[in-house]
Amino acid sequence: MPHTAAPTVSWSVEPDRRPGTPLVVALHGRGADEASFAQLAPYLPQEATMAFVRAPLAEGGGYAWFANRGIGRPLPDSLAATAGWLFDWLDTEAAGHTSVSLLGFSGGMAMAGGLLLARPERFAAAVLLSGTLPWDAGLPEEQGRLTGMPVFWGRDTADQVIPADLVTRTGTWLHEDSGARLEERRYPGQGHAIALPELTDASAFLRRAWESEG
User: Fold this and answer.
1) H helix runs in 38-174, sequence order
2) Structural domain of residue 128, as residue ranges?
């Protein structure tokens, strides 16, 4: 079913400070919420507007972006419904910003990947953390789909949460088929989490991407 209510968003800056800034749409992990994810704001580019969006489906004391058939395996109709909902919201929010980038963690990485695969032309860059792209969800995944797109992929190779076959498939496609300008970083000992070194690297990556756009 389509989502009808507007997204709940925790913003990093007040409305009068948003025009003329890069917009970063930040998508939390499964079972979390926008408030907990917004705690990352001080460690992300201060010149940007961060929009920490709450996923639409209540789950586990928090929220999820889509129904799935196992970890990292979205149901196509559910993923498509949330993607449409987010694109409708972006149609109203993106105006006045210099660009729109994505930042997704875990289930939020799968959602960010769904948005990228659906409409790559809408985004300037993507930060994908500790997750998988949404395979077998009816999205375009042809060779060169993300040609020229700056993509940051950060993870701990010992992360046991995301199925290894999905991580391998994601890495192969990003490196060999996507056409993206990929920056992959690995963080031993981090586990299924986000730590300061990764945020520092991701912030530097976003600034480089915005500078190249300018």
Assistant:
1) 76-93, 107-118, 164-172
2) 9-13+22-213
